[in-house]
Amino acid sequence: MPRPLRVAIVGAGPAGIYAADALMKSDVAVDPGVSIDLFERMPAPFGLIRYGVAPDHPRIKGIITALHQVLDKPQIRLFGNVDYPADISLDDLHQFYDAVVFSTGASADRAMDIPGIELDGSYGAADFVSWFDGHPDVPRTWPLHAEKVAVLGVGNVALDVARILAKTATELLPTEIPPNVHEGLAANKAVEVHVFGRRGPAQAKFSPMELRELDHSPNIEVIVNPEDIDYDDGSIATRRANKQADMVASTLENWAIRDVGERPHKLFLHFFESPTEVLGEDGRVVGLRTERTRLDGTGNVTGTGEMHDWDVQAVYRAVGYLSSELPKLPFDTLTGTVPHEAGRVVEGGEHLPSTYVTGWIKRGPVGLIGHTKGDANETVANLIEDHLAGRLRTAAAPGEDAVVAFLDDAGVPYTTWDGWYRLDAAERALGVPEGRERVKIVDREAMLEASAAPVTTGQQ
């Protein structure tokens, strides 16, 4: 009797879970069936949603409800707190599985090559997001001494950083932020936050809803300079072709023509300002220098030579995330992706047998969370095609107990899906005395303890 197709997915964020869902919805899931194991280096699943979405965005975190339904399926197992390749290598995975899908995402900051970017007080947005989202592998404190702060970039991550810096700790207390984050934000001295984009309003990458949310805080006054509202033929074409770009531009126009109010924290959205240097003194940030730009007719900009120095004491660059290289896989350092053809990993012009990618490691860190569904569907369709055509490498040890024995013998303290339910219950219990939905547990050992991770026992 044919055995189920055995698939390993490395990375239990949205991309990996969507891939598992696509496999479960395929014809192969019916006959001969499919057995899926997700490996996640964090003790908890959900990746970007747990550690990359701002805590005051519960609507986006609601996606977890749909992902829960996928992981609840009996054909899917979770092995959390398992690192690739330290705990399990590509050769190990091919021993236990017929196919391996990498969905490891992007968690590092893309570099920005301007003088002074290395100064004390210059930070990557990804590092700050990891801190306020309670990532267990980052420091528990964050320096929030600057009264005036610059954020470089005009995407949703830049908005998250600016909003968290501009809000009060009291506003954020009802969210799931852990005590160390609340304590840090309570000491935050920022009263002015300046967001800089080198192009115009029509080219901003904000989503309309995230942009409008800036104005919902009773403590944040959003300010747009009327001189920054400018469009050329390329910008007008963008607005006509893209409803979201048009909505963003309209919101910015409305803010530009209104009077400045009395809210205590000011958040400035600047356009046509290209950062050229982070200014320093005694090794610390003391300002930002930008060059004024102008539209060139196509929606792009050119420099005018007009420089402006801004009085800020901290700079956060939110110019994009970057995936980390995966051992044993090819990697394009320019794009931060694994070379592939429709999800099939390619090295030297040949497909690596039984090896696939999906999500940001496949296409780069662009688009919204839901866009990874299309990636997953494409990758899984080709995996299934290779399976039906007999192109997959057959696992030498495909039994479901084999990988459990391997991890147990190696002493890997892995967590399970049942363990996530225990961790989830523990976090929710911490929130009850404060009337909060949950309080996130930050320390890795505490997460393992709450999950009751087995060390020498099998999958629970």
Structure description:
The protein has 460 residues and is an alpha/beta fold. The chain has 2 domains: 5-107 and 323-451, 3-Layer(aba) Sandwich (Rossmann fold), CATH 3.40.50; 108-321, 3-Layer(bba) Sandwich (FAD/NAD(P)-binding domain), CATH 3.50.50. The protein is 33% helix and 22% strand. The protein is built from 17 helices and 18 strands. The protein has helices spanning 14-24, 47-51, 58-61, 63-71, 90-96, 125-132, 156-166, 169-172, 179-186, 208-213, 233-241, 243-257, 360-363, 372-388, 400-410, 417-431, 444-451; strands at 5-10, 34-40, 76-80, 99-102, 108-109, 122-124, 148-152, 192-196, 220-224, 265-270, 273-281, 284-295, 301-310, 314-317, 321-322, 340-341, 344-347, 350-357. A 7-stranded mixed sheet has the order 3-2-1-4-18-17-16, sandwiched between helices. A 6-stranded parallel sheet has the order 6-14-7-8-10-9. A hairpin with a 2-residue loop joins strand 17 (344-347) and strand 18 (350-357). Helix 16 crosses helix 17. The protein is globular and about 70 Å long. 45% of the residues are buried. Mean pLDDT is 94; it is low at 453-460.
